[in-house]
Design brief:
With 585 residues, the chain is an alpha+beta fold. The chain has 25 helices and 20 strands. The protein is 43% helix and 13% strand. The strands form six sheets. Strands 7-6-11-8-9-10 form a six-stranded mixed sheet.
Length: 585
C-alpha cells in the first residue's frame, strides 16, 4: 500500500491537499488509487512524499510520522473504536493539528467495502482500502511536521496561485458551495443517481419540487473545506427533531444516496442521517453499502433468499432494514457476513437467480444510471482500470442540451487538437462522449499527480497553463502544458497496464445487462438512449462507444488494452516488454 501526496501538496496552490493510496483493492483485485482531501500537506511538512507500507504487524498498530520521529505504535487503545473516536484520541495524544487517516470496525473485520476516513470528513478507498489496513493490523496513520515545503521560485508561484485563488473566490455559486458543498448539485445529480430497488425504479422524479427540495436541504448545517481551498465540497448535516435529534454527520457526495435511504420511508431524513453517521463511524462505503442492502432486500422480496437465510429478519424497503443490515455487515454478523464480501460474491453465494439480478461494474455499484440520462460517467465507470467510483476520470456529467460549440470549448481547455475536436464535437449525429473521455482522464491524471482536487469549481479555476507554471515555479523544473498532458496520459497507461497484468481486458469493460431493460418512473418506462435522447441504444451501439474510446486512446480495439506502439510513444518500452513476456501483447 502506497500512501502519498502530489507535487504541489503542502504549498499554497489552491485545493492542493489531495492524498492518494495505491493498492490492490479487495473488492475486485484491481490495482487502483483512491483519493481524498487532507493529510498530504502534513505529510509534506514532515518531509515525505510517499509512505510505502508492506507486510503485516503481529498486533494492532498505528503509524506515527512526526518529522524524523517515525514508528509503529501499539494501537490497543484505539482498536475496536470507530473512526471519529480514533481520530480524537490520536489527536489528543499527538497534537490537535495532526492529520489522521483511520479505519473503523468495518476495516478491522476485513469488510471488502470498507474504507478509511481522513480527518473525520474525507472518505478514502472505495473498493476496500479499509480492509487492506485491517489485513495489516494497521489502525491509522497520524502525521504532522515542521519542515515546510521549499519553493524554487516563490514570487512566481505566489503570483500564479493568487490568480487561481481569485478565480475561485469569484465562482458564481461560491456562497451556495460554502453552505451546501456538492449538495448544491442535488437537483441535477438526483436525476441520474436516483435509481433504487436494485436498479428497477427511478425514485427522484419529484426532487425538483420546492417542498421536496426544502425538506431535504434543511438538514445542511455548514460547509467544510480542505486546507488551501477557498471553496467547500463537504457539509455537516444534522437533525433538530425526532429520534435522532441533535445528531450531526459529515457528508458530501453520499448525500444523494443518503436521500434515497430516506426515500423508502417518504423521505425520512431522520433515519437517513443516522445511516450516514454509522457509515462514517464504521468506515464503510455509504454508496456500496446502500447497493448491497438494496440487492439483499430485492432477493428477499422475490423469494430468492429465505427468512432463514436473513437470520429470521424480514427485509423491507425501509430505513429500519437499512440500518440493521448495515450494522450486521460491519460486524460480519449472519447475512451481513455474506454481504460484507461485496455484490459479486454475494450473488454467487445465492445461486443462478441471484446472479441474474446483480448489477455491478467490475464488482462495484455502477453509481449512475445511463437510462435516466447518458452523461458520460457510465462509460468511464466501465473503462476505468479500477472499476466504478464517484465521477471516474472526471469526465464531465453533461446535462441535456449542451451544444457542439460548448463541448468544443471544453475540449480546447484540455488542449485537445482541432482534428480530434472535429471527431468529438462535429460528427454527423451528436458529440462523441466516448472519445472525449480519453482527454478528461488524462487531465484527471495530471491534477492527481500534482495533488490538486478535481471538484468542478476547482477545475474551472485552473487551466493547463497555470498548472504547468505552478509546477515549474515549485520545482524549478521547466515543463510545458503539453508535457504535463503527456505525463497524465503516461500515468493512465501505466495504471491500465498494471491491471492488464492482473487479468483485466475488454471483457471486463461492459454495461450491466440491467441497463438494457426499461427503468420504471411512476407509470412511465425509461429506456437507454443516446445523449440527445433521439435514439434507443442497442448493445451494438454501446459496443461502438467502447470501440471509439479505445481508438481515441490508441489502444487495441479488440483487447481494450494499450498497444506496444502506444506504450513506446509514451516512453514506456519496459512496460511493453513486460506485457509482451506475459503474453498480453
Amino acid at each position: 500500500m502506497i500512501v502519498g501526496s502530489g507535487a504541489l501538496s503542502g504549498t499554497l496552490a489552491p485545493g492542493s491537499t489531495k492524498v492518494m493510496a495505491t493498492t490492490k483493492l479487495p473488492i475486485n483485485n484491481a490495482i487502483g488509487t483512491p483519493f481524498a482531501g487532507g493529510f498530504s500537506h502534513r505529510l509534506k511538512y514532515a518531509g515525505y512524499d510517499y509512505v510505502v507500507i508492506m507486510g503485516r504487524a503481529d498486533r494492532p498498530v498505528y503509524l506515527k510520522i512526526m518529522d524524523d520521529d517515525v514508528g509503529l505504535i501499539d494501537a490497543g487503545g484505539v482498536w475496536g473504536k470507530d473512526t471519529l473516536e480514533t481520530t480524537d484520541l490520536l489527536r489528543a495524544k499527538h497534537g490537535a493539528d495532526s492529520s489522521v487517516i483511520a479505519i473503523g470496525q468495518a476495516g478491522e473485520n476485513l469488510v471488502r467495502i470498507s474504507f478509511a476516513i481522513v480527518d473525520k470528513f474525507g472518505t478514502l478507498g472505495r473498493g476496500g482500502l479499509g480492509a487492506v489496513f485491517g489485513s495489516k493490523n494497521l489502525k491509522a496513520l497520524v502525521v504532522n511536521g515542521t519542515k515546510g515545503v521549499g519553493i524554487a521560485d516563490a514570487e512566481g508561484f505566489i503570483e500564479v496561485a493568487g490568480s487561481v485563488r481569485k478565480k475561485m473566490l469569484k465562482y458564481p455559486f461560491r456562497k451556495e458551495w460554502l453552505k451546501l458543498g456538492v449538495g448544491l448539485g442535488l437537483m441535477v445529480f438526483a436525476k441520474i443517481m436516483g435509481t433504487a430497488r436494485n436498479w428497477a425504479e427511478l425514485f427522484t422524479q419529484d426532487i425538483d419540487q420546492p417542498a421536496q427540495l426544502q425538506e431535504l436541504l434543511k438538514i445542511f448545517k455548514s460547509g467544510h473545506a480542505c486546507p488551501t481551498c477557498p471553496l467547500a465540497c463537504r457539509a455537516l448535516v444534522g437533525l433538530e427533531e425526532k429520534e435522532y435529534a441533535d445528531l450531526t454527520a459529515p457528508g458530501s457526495t453520499s448525500l444523494y444516496f443518503n436521500y434515497l435511504v430516506g426515500k423508502y420511508e417518504a423521505c425520512d431524513l431522520n433515519r437517513s442521517v443516522k445511516y450516514l453517521d454509522l457509515c462514517n463511524r464504521y468506515g464503510i462505503d455509504v454508496i456500496e453499502a446502500r447497493a448491497l442492502i438494496d440487492y439483499a432486500i430485492d432477493l428477499y422480496q422475490r423469494g430468492i433468499i429465505t427468512r432463514e437465510e436473513t437470520d429470521g429478519q424480514e427485509l423491507n424497503w425501509d430505513g429500519v432494514t437499512f440500518v440493521s443490515l448495515l450494522e450486521k455487515i460491519c460486524r460480519r454478523d449472519g447475512l451481513g457476513g455474506i454481504l460484507a464480501d461485496g455484490l459479486m460474491p454475494t450473488s454467487k453465494k445465492f445461486g443462478k437467480l441471484a446472479i441474474e439480478r446483480v448489477v455491478a461494474i467490475k464488482g462495484l455499484d455502477p453509481f449512475t444510471d445511463p437510462r435516466a440520462h447518458l452523461v458520460g460517467w457510465e462509460i468511464t465507470a466501465c473503462v476505468n482500470p479500477r472499476g466504478s467510483y464517484v465521477s471516474p476520470g472526471v469526465s464531465p456529467a453533461f446535462a441535456p442540451g449542451r451544444t457542439p460549440e460548448h463541448i468544443a470549448k471544453y475540449c480546447r481547455r484540455l488542449l485537445v487538437a482541432e482534428e480530434a475536436i472535429n471527431r468529438i464535437c462535429y460528427s454527423p449525429t451528436e458529440f462523441n462522449i466516448a472519445r472525449l473521455i480519453k482527454y478528461a482522464e488524462d487531465w484527471y491524471s495530471v491534477y492527481s499527480l500534482l495533488g490538486i482536487c478535481v471538484r468542478q469549481p476547482v477545475m474551472m479555476s485552473y487551466d493547463p497553463q497555470a498548472a504547468a507554471q505552478l509546477y515549474t515555479s515549485a520545482t524549478g523544473i521547466d515543463i510545458t502544458p503539453e508535457e504535463l498532458s503527456k505525463a497524465g496520459e503516461r500515468a493512465w497507461n501505466i495504471l491500465k497496464a498494471a491491471n492488464v497484468r492482473e487479468g483485466f481486458t475488454r471483457k471486463d469493460d461492459r454495461f450491466p445487462d440491467k441497463f438494457f431493460e426499461p427503468l420504471k418512473s411512476g407509470d412511465k418506462e425509461i429506456r437507454l438512449m443516446n445523449y440527445s435522447r433521439t435514439k434507443e441504444l442497442t448493445r451494438g451501439d454501446v459496443k461502438k462507444m467502447f470501440d471509439d474510446y479505445y481508438d481515441e486512446r490508441g489502444w487495441d480495439i479488440e483487447k481494450g488494452i494499450p498497444t506496444r506502439k502506444k506504450l513506446e510513444d509514451l516512453d514506456l518500452k519496459d512496460v511493453a516488454i513486460d506485457l509482451e513476456k506475459r503474453g498480453f501483447l
